[in-house]
Design brief:
Elements (H helix, E strand, L loop, with lengths): L6 E14 L5 E16 L4 E5 L6 H8 L7 E6 L2 E2 L5 H7 L3 E4 L13 H11 L5 H14 L16 H13 L5 E5 L7 H18 L2 E6 L2 H7 L2 E6 L2 E7 H6 L4 H8 L50 E4 L2 E3 L9
Parallel strand pairs: 3-8, 3-9, 6-7, 7-8
Antiparallel strand pairs: 1-2, 1-4, 4-5, 9-10, 10-12, 11-12
Helix pairs in contact: 3-4, 3-5, 4-5, 5-6
């Protein structure tokens, strides 16, 4: 029998109100940051979430952890409805759900030592006495490749790659099952990115972790993800296995993104297909298919009819009116 996914998201929505007026502020609109997402993440897999900046990727990760409260939708983790939990109950569930932040420089408290940063989750959740916490911190430093002699150093004494290792150690402190990786290598030098990615893959195998890997770099996602979702203006436009998406993208937006990935020795047949126009504002998205204003294949019906995410071929779904499911 098929097993239940570790994470199930249905209709996930976040609209931020737009206020106007200094003395008597009133709501005059909404920024549709996340606009009705449906996806599952299986236990032990890496689910990639890609798209241009501002499409809602980071907001999605924070909504799943309820660091931001959704406007609508359901989030089930290990069969439990997270939306029904009180704040204290949700805080306890976060022992199993952690996040690795994008900025290794801004995500660490400059007034805390390495041991205090990594041990903070243990203190917050009151796990073990001080001796047990110190032992756990030492174990975590070894796991992420940092020397225990660094324990009393401050963040400014570390490089960007080392700081991200500290962030990873902090995320692992409570033995989580699921980690939101919010562009964990985008702020690092290219020479360091591979080291951090390989570390994360090794940790996934060692501890049986499940990742939501958020990124705008399709090359990185191709290396780490099992399945990939492509996001545009708050909506998912395509979900497929890594190989299927990179070899045969179905949605015009996915095709344009992949065409822009640098490749060695490009040929004339691999010329870029640039997108026309600018990204619309999420506070005033286009009617119908959000992508129709930039799509080279758009038809009249694309302007009025919103496509739904549907299976085009086994294990490969796309939201495009112009695609016909395979028989």
């Amino acid at each position: 029998m098929p097993t239940e996914p570790l994470l199930r998201v249905r209709g996930l929505t976040k609209h931020f109100p737009v206020m106007r007026g200094a003395l008597l502020p009133r709501v005059v609109g909404a920024v549709r940051a996340v606009d009705g997402l449906d996806f599952d993440i299986e236990d032990g897999e890496t689910f990639g979430l890609v798209g241009e900046s501002g499409c809602g990727k980071t907001t999605t990760g924070r909504l799943i952890l309820r660091l931001i409260e959704p406007s609508a939708g359901t989030i089930q983790f290990a069969g439990e409805d997270l939306m029904s939990l009180a704040p204290e109950e949700m805080r306890q569930r976060r022992q199993q759900m952690q996040i690795i932040l994008q900025d290794p420089y801004g995500s660490l408290d400059p007034r805390m030592t390495l041991s205090e940063i990594v041990g903070e989750p243990l203190r917050i959740h009151q796990i073990g006495d001080r001796a047990a916490q110190r032992k756990r911190v030492t174990e975590l430093l070894d796991v992420v490749g940092l020397r225990k002699e660094y324990a009393n150093r401050y963040p400014h004494e570390f490089s960007g790659g080392q700081r991200q290792r500290i962030g990873i150690a902090r995320a692992l402190a409570l033995h989580p099952r699921f980690i939101v990786c919010d562009e964990p290598v985008s702020a690092l030098d290219v020479s360091i990115q591979a080291q951090i990615i390989n570390l994360m893959l090794d940790l996934q195998k060692e501890f049986g972790l499940t990742y939501l890997f958020i990124a705008h770099d399709l090359g990185v996602v191709k290396h780490v993800a099992d399945r990939v979702a492509v996001m545009y203006l708050g909506r998912i436009v395509e979900i497929a296995g890594r190989q299927a998406l990179y070899e045969a993208p179905q949605h015009p937006y996915s095709q344009a993104l992949l065409a822009a990935v640098p490749i060695p020795r490009p040929s004339a047949k691999q010329a870029l297909t640039p997108l026309k126009g600018e990204i619309p504002s999420p506070s005033n998205p286009p009617s119908g298919c959000h992508f129709h204003t930039r799509c080279p294949r758009a038809e009249e019906r694309c302007r009025v009819e919103a496509p739904v995410l549907r299976e085009i071929r086994p294990g490969h779904s796309a939201a495009c009116l112009l695609l016909t499911p395979e028989p």
